[in-house]
Amino acid sequence: xxxxxxxxxxxxxxxxxxxxxxxxxxxxxxxxxxxxxxxxxxxxxxxxxxxxxxxxxxxxxxxxxx
Length: 66
Description:
By secondary structure, the chain is mainly α. It has three helices and no strands.
């Protein structure tokens, strides 16, 4: 039904779960970084860490599919 799902080899539900998980990580990182912008001691590297962890999960998933 969706070319992208065929390309990445995921079902609709699997893809939705991964995409929503990534969106959640991005929203969490955005919240931490917004507070960090006003209060630099807050979170220190946590926002970046959240994004790195999310990228690692994506990279791991992409590598599995090849």
